[in-house]
Write a structure and sequence with these properties.
The chain is of the alpha/beta class and 302 residues long. It has ten helices and seven strands. The longest helix is centred in the middle third of the chain and has 18 residues.
Length: 302
C-alpha cells in the first residue's frame, strides 16, 4: 500500500469514527436488552469467519468477560490465509499459523474457549472473492459447518449467540454472511432432538446479529440492512472495581493481531468513535437464512 493510499484510507476511517455517533433508527423489541442481561454472568458464543472479526463485537465480549464474569466461546471458521500479512519481516512460517496464534492470544485476553477451524478463506483482492453461494459450496465440500457449530452449542450451552449479519455481514464480505447463516443453522440443529450430533438437545435462548450502523456506512448505503431492535453502550465502565470502559478493552484487545495491523488500526479508530453497538435480536427458528441461497459478491466487477 502506498503512503498516499494509506493516508486516504486513514482519512476515511477517521471520518467513519467521527460520524459513528449519529444515532441509527431503531425499533426496540419488548423484553430485556443484551446490555441489561450482561449485568449478570452469561455464556456467550461468538461465531465468525475470520481471526480478527471479534473486533466488531469487542465491547460486548469485554462486558461479558470483565464486568459480569461470564464465559465466552469463540467459534472461528477460517485461519484467514487469504488475507495479507502486514508484519515487516513477513509472517513465518506462514500466514494461517501466525493468525491462529494471534487469535489464540486474543481469546486468552478475553478468557474465551477457542474452536478454530480451517475452512477455505477466499484470497485477496476483494474483486476476486467468489459469490457467497460458491464459497458455501466449498465449505460444504470440506465438511458441513452446521453440525460442528451445533455440537459446540450443545457442549457450551450458550445463553447468547452472536454473529455478524447474514445479508451484508458488516462489510459486505460473503464469508461474514455465511458464518452467521451457518451459526443460526447450528442453533436450529442443536435444538433438534433427532439430530445425529453429540450431546443433549439444547435451545439457545438469545440470538443476535451484530450490525454495522456506522454513520458513513449509512450515508453511502453500505450498512447492514436490518433495522436494529437493541443497542449496547460501549462507553460504560467494564470492570466491577475499575475505570476502564468496554470500548477501551475492545480497542486494546485488537493489538495481538499484528499481521492485520493496517485493518486493526482502522478498526481502533472506528471503535474509538462508536458510543453504541447496534444489534438485531433474531429468532433463528422463524427467520431462516439458507447458507446456500445464491448471492453475488458486491465487489465483483464482471
Amino acid at each position: 500500500m502506498t503512503i498516499r493510499r494509506w493516508a486516504a484510507w486513514c482519512v476515511v476511517m477517521l471520518t467513519m469514527a467521527m460520524t459513528s455517533a449519529c444515532a441509527a433508527k431503531m425499533q426496540p423489541h419488548e423484553g430485556l436488552f443484551l446490555d441489561e442481561m450482561l449485568e449478570t454472568p452469561q455464556r456467550v458464543m461468538w461465531v465468525a469467519a475470520h481471526p480478527d472479526d471479534e473486533s466488531f463485537a469487542g465491547s460486548i465480549l469485554a462486558k461479558t468477560a470483565y464486568k459480569a464474569g461470564g464465559e465466552l466461546y469463540f467459534f472461528v471458521l477460517t485461519h484467514g490465509d487469504g488475507g495479507a500479512c502486514h508484519i515487516p519481516g513477513g509472517c513465518n512460517p506462514d500466514l494461517p499459523t501466525v493468525r491462529g496464534k494471534e487469535l489464540a492470544e486474543v481469546a486468552r485476553l478475553y478468557g474465551a474457549t477457542l474452536q478454530h477451524e480451517y475452512y477455505f478463506n477466499a484470497p485477496l483482492p476483494v474483486e476476486s472473492i467468489p459469490d457467497r453461494h460458491e464459497i458455501a459450496k466449498v465449505w460444504m465440500e470440506q465438511g458441513d459447518p452446521t453440525p460442528k457449530i451445533a455440537a459446540a452449542i450443545r457442549k457450551f450451552k450458550p445463553t447468547v449467540i452472536l454473529a455478524l449479519s447474514p445479508d451484508h455481514g458488516g462489510t459486505g464480505h460473503p464469508e461474514h454472511q455465511l458464518a452467521c447463516r451457518f451459526a443460526m443453522a447450528g442453533v436450529r440443529m442443536a435444538a433438534d432432538g433427532s439430530a445425529s450430533i453429540p450431546g443433549e438437545a439444547y435451545r439457545v435462548p438469545n440470538a443476535y446479529y451484530v450490525l454495522n450502523k456506522i454513520g458513513l456506512s449509512r450515508m453511502i448505503g453500505m450498512d447492514d440492512p436490518e433495522i436494529p431492535n437493541e443497542n449496547f453502550k460501549n462507553v460504560q465502565i467494564c470492570e466491577s472495581d475499575g475505570t476502564m470502559t468496554c470500548q477501551r478493552y475492545a480497542i486494546e484487545n485488537t493489538k495481538p493481531h499484528h499481521s492485520q495491523n493496517a485493518d486493526m488500526t482502522g478498526m481502533r479508530l472506528v471503535t474509538s468513535g462508536m458510543w453504541k453497538t447496534y444489534l438485531y435480536k433474531v429468532d433463528p427458528f422463524t427467520e431462516v437464512k439458507d447458507p446456500m441461497e445464491p448471492a453475488r459478491s458486491i465487489w465483483r466487477k464482471d
